[in-house]
From TrEMBL:
A molecular function (GO) term: ATP binding
Coiled coil ranges: none
SMART domains noted in UniProt: AAA
Keyword Acyltransferase: no
Domain of life: Bacteria
Residue intervals of the ABC transporter domain: 4-229
SUPFAM superfamilies xrefs: P-loop containing nucleoside triphosphate hydrolases
InterPro entries per UniProt: AAA+_ATPase (IPR003593), ABC_transporter-like_ATP-bd (IPR003439), ABC_transporter-like_CS (IPR017871), MacB-like_ATP-bd (IPR017911), P-loop_NTPase (IPR027417)
Protein name (database record): ABC transporter ATP-binding protein
GO CC field: membrane protein complex
Amino acid sequence: MSFIQLKDVTKVYDSKGVSFTALQKVDLTIERGEFVSLMGPSGSGKSTLLTILGTLNPPSTGKLMIDDIDIYQLSQERRADFRYSYTGFVFQQMHLLPYLSAIENVMLPLSVSKYSGKEQLTMAEQVLDKVGLLNKKHRLPNEMSGGEQQRVAIARAIVNNPPIVFADEPTGSLDTKTGEEILELFKSLNKQGHTIIMVTHNPETVEYVSRVVVIRDGLIESDTYRSKGE
Ligand SMILES: Nc1ncnc2c1ncn2[C@@H]1O[C@H](COP(=O)(O)OP(=O)(O)OP(=O)(O)O)[C@@H](O)[C@H]1O
């Protein structure tokens, strides 16, 4: 059984009485350890696909299986529990809380966890170290560069050690060099075992990933594997 299986998924949005088919009968299988980029023109359905895979957006028809669990058959509460333990999210706008320090931002997802305050602090320090920012753990977001803020957001996404990390345009608001550093960081997280699924317009991403899925008009136009470490 594959790790992630999207089967025959269609998504129709209804807006003011007008319906629009954003995904049409999409099948996609992703194994543990893959680093997949979802690419394609604006409006092609990439974010829709990402949010469906990310357990956030129920498809109109079809299903998503992760680790043999039929995700959209779960109650909302159990789906939220699943999301908490299996997934981390990184966005173009980092969504850091401006009045919390880097380490406080990273600790946020742990506030509902079973871990003691001391354990939460240790876990947050470990991931901040992983992203190279332990020495800036007390900085506020506006005291850090865009790339550093994205590193904090990545640390927050992985603090719970989720098997899957979803990213939506994580280099979109960064300059080229900083974007490359962030892609390197994702690559090293992938090597450490996280499956990564990333929506991007950034053509450079192709050099870092193991697979490129191109979406056009709600359909998978191409699906190309690259040899790892290329
Ligand atoms: N909530 C919604 N209601 C109505 N239509 C929507 C909704 N969300 C997305 N759409 C439409 O579905 C299509 C696919 O949108 P989606 O955001 O998945 O595309 P995308 O490939 O991620 O685009 P971009 O690269 O511009 O972010 C678009 O035509 C969009 O307008």
